[in-house]
Amino acid sequence: MPTRDEIYAKVQTALVDALGVEEDEISPAATMVGDLGAESIDFLDIVFRLEKTFGIKIPRGELFPEDVLSSSEFVTNGKVNAAGLTALKERMPFADLTKFESNPSVQNFANTLTVEDMVRYVQLKLAA
Amino acid sequence: MRWFWIDRFDEFVRGKHATAVKNVSLAEEHLHDHFPGTALMPNSLVVEGMAQTAGLLVADAIEFNRRVVLAKVAGAEFYFDAVPGDTLRFHAEICDLKPAGALTHVTSHVGDRLQGEAELFFAHLEPGEGVPKLFEPDELLKWLDQMHIYDIGRDAAGQPLARPDW
After folding, report:
1. Which residues of chain A does B99 touch, with a Cβ-Cβ cutoff of 8 Å?
2. Which positions of B are catalytic?
3. Which residues on chain B are in Cβ contact (under 8 Å) with A20?
């Protein structure tokens, strides 16, 4: 099992290749969309790279639960409701959703996921 | 009129790799202005040729049942410019193929010299995902015939490809 720092270094390489950003633009707290400029197609690219780098399988919707965010059951008036937040926490144990919970607008979700969340996700997959 | 930036395939192995050629000619109007007296094949159009090579390889691999769209040029580097008289050989390999998309690596050679290389990422879209129908089946088949895919194409076991009955 690689260390957290080893995983971080490989995640960083995957993000540099997928997003065309410089290595020093990537920090654990950097958000994927807001800071690194990831667009929806980039997430698919990142999934390909993480799978190859770490030899893991990432089912669609596991890293980015789009289905929760587009469900009328979980979204009320453009905001993720209590049931939706519970679903997100269950589906994304690797993500720190504290900040998102203070204003759970669907639009804000894009700025929730950080580089450190990605590292934690890989750690969970490798430990499984 | 379609936007053709490859002339034919010389090699096509289903789901694996393919080689297509593009002859650069001064008869192509875009070279008259790019640039007067010094015609250079724009590398943006080289990328288009690479994308057509890799895109047809990917679309065939998923049996043309989704719309294969060039979603991203993840990286591209060029080492010299192609000029009229050159034959570009595009070699595409599928690095990864999933229901949602494909990652390919494509090189462009003039003779033995590496002219450029790119990592091209394709999305596979369902009808209704924001992309209009790209081809009528008979039009697509004409293009594939023109590209000689069913003359020279082979599956992974080396058997000739069957021409689809669309």
Report:
1. 60
2. 34
3. 74-75
Strand extents, DSSP E, A14-107: 75-76, 79-80
8 A C-beta contact, residue A80 and residue A68: yes
Q: Which residues of A touch B74 (CB under 8 A)?
A: 17-18, 20, 45
Minimum distance, in Å, between the CA of residue A99 and any CA atom of chain B:
31
**Which tokens in the block code for residue A64?**
């980015």
- The answer to whether A117 and A50 have CB atoms below 8 angstroms apart is no
d(CA B6, CA A58): 35
CA B150 to chain centre: 16
Rounded to whole angstroms, how far apart are CA atoms B48 and B104? 14
Residues B72, A52: C-beta atoms closer than 8 Å: no
Q: At what angle do helices A115-127 and A40-54 cross, to 10 degrees?
A: 40
The answer to whether A55 touches A61, Cβ cutoff 8 Å, is: no
Whole-model pTM: value is 0.85
Report which secondary-structure segment, H or E, holds B154: strand B153-154
Q: What is the pLDDT of residues A1-47, one digit of tens each?
A: 899 999 999 999 999 999 999 999 999 999 999 999 998 889 889 99
Chain-chain contact of A48 with B74 (C-beta, under 8 angstroms)? no
Runs of H (alpha helix) within chain B: 43-61, 137-146, 149-152
Contact B100 A60 (CB under 8 A): yes
The token pair at B21 is 């050629």
Residue-range domains of chain A with CATH: 1-58+113-128 (1.10.1200.10), 65-109 (no CATH)
ipTM for the assembly? 0.73
Domains contained in chain B, CATH given: 8-151 (3.10.129.10)
